[in-house]
Amino acid sequence: MKKLVAGEVYMLSISVVLSTAVLYLPFIIASVALQDSWLAVILGTAVAIPFTLFALALSTRFPEKGLEEIIEELFGKYLGRLLAVVYALFFLYSSALIIRQLEEFIVLSLMPETPPLAIRILFVLILFMGVYEGTLAIVRTNVYVMPVGAFVIVAVIGLATTQMNFDNLTPAFTVGLEGILNGGFFTTAWLLQIPMVILIFFKFIEIAKLKPIVKTESVFVVILTGGALLLGALGTIASFGPRLTADILYPSFAMARIISIGGFLEHIEVTFVGVWIAAMFMAGTAYCFMSILMITWVLGFKDTKKISFPMAATLFYLPAAIATDLSSVIHQLRVFFPTLCVIFGGVLPFAFLALAVVMNKGISPKELSEMQKEQENKNPKDNFGAQDGDIAENPQNGDNGQNQEDGNNTEENDDEESQSDNDKDDSSKK
């Protein structure tokens, strides 16, 4: 598989967070923090930054190794692979929950007469195509989806300002510290999806490209994503007020529907929904493929395509199993999903990093820098796009070898012709 760059991985993490948060998270936070939701988002973003740095430090300590390889090196073959299976189940659960959210939204808001199973079948078939093509197809497709999604979010909030009443944001600190902390917990949980994407996909980045700037970039990505969540919280509460935002199931979608400028710029929600569905496809595909990567490692397979179909096929049944109706979906998003994100995206990566430091596993930043210098000396030219483990070869080598072989064959043919002429001369003399 071709190598990636850090920016592509970071863009995928932004898509995963925003697509799963844009519809449901504003009303979840507003239900506990009311008009102080913006304070909760700022607090949650600040808490997510160090955990993202912990995950990045773990990835750079084991360059070109994925999470599954890291935990096996730390815990041994059997316990490490057991943890890999647990992570795989969580990733598969996340993918199924994304599909379930998509079904409920389409049935409730867009096509009430359409059976949810039909939506699931269509979505899973498209998802299977993504996971079958692998990492490069997923990440490179997201490079086009994420900027469009970010533009639409900013455009919707900007156009809806004519319908907003910013007095709804005051007074501040009315719900107390507990409400702000609860809202911050939800924000942190959603942002901790970023460390999980880093731990899975950073192994596809060349060591030479793991410069110190990736730390600054990771902090910027968390702040940027948290800023988008902050705009969503401010926009929905300013538009509908804290109480109504906490009661509306899809406040962001409702905010897009109220946009009306000059009587001609209306129905922006159509574009909003289209981009959101594309982003949800990216998030669901990414989670499913992350699960496939873990299971492939556990089973000892070298090709992820062998299990792409059976893993994707489970998503025909799993969404209905984890959430039978809308109330079950909301319960999953309020209780289980944020708790699991904090565990798998925050607590466990920090524990893995601490254990690696205590056991002196992996390499230090200084050793990583030395490896980068050695690699740059060996390969002065950028080999972006080379196959895994391959080094770009000088194309002239093959031509020189071929020319030398042709020269040897020519000399052999000349010797044979000379010998044949000598035999003819001897025969004529006789």
TrEMBL record:
Primary location group: membrane
Subcellular location: Membrane
Pfam families for this protein: Spore_permease
GO cellular component annotations of the record: membrane
Comp. bias (Acidic residues): 408-420
Biased composition (Basic and acidic residues): 369-381, 421-430
Membrane topology: Multi-pass membrane protein
Transmembrane segments: 9-32, 38-58, 78-99, 119-139, 144-164, 184-205, 217-240, 273-299, 311-330, 336-358
Region (Disordered), start-end ranges: 369-430
InterPro entries, A to Z: Spore_GerAB
GO BP of this protein: spore germination
Low complexity composition-biased segments: 393-407
Alphabetical keyword list: Germination, Membrane, Transmembrane, Transmembrane helix, Transport
Family affiliation: Belongs to the amino acid-polyamine-organocation (APC) superfamily. Spore germination protein (SGP) (TC 2.A.3.9) family.
PANTHER family assigned to the protein according to its UniProt record, in alphabetical order: SPORE GERMINATION PROTEIN A2
Name of the protein described by the UniProt record: Endospore germination permease
Species this chain originates from: Alkalicella caledoniensis
The organism's taxonomic lineage, starting at the top: Bacteria, Bacillati, Bacillota, Clostridia, Eubacteriales
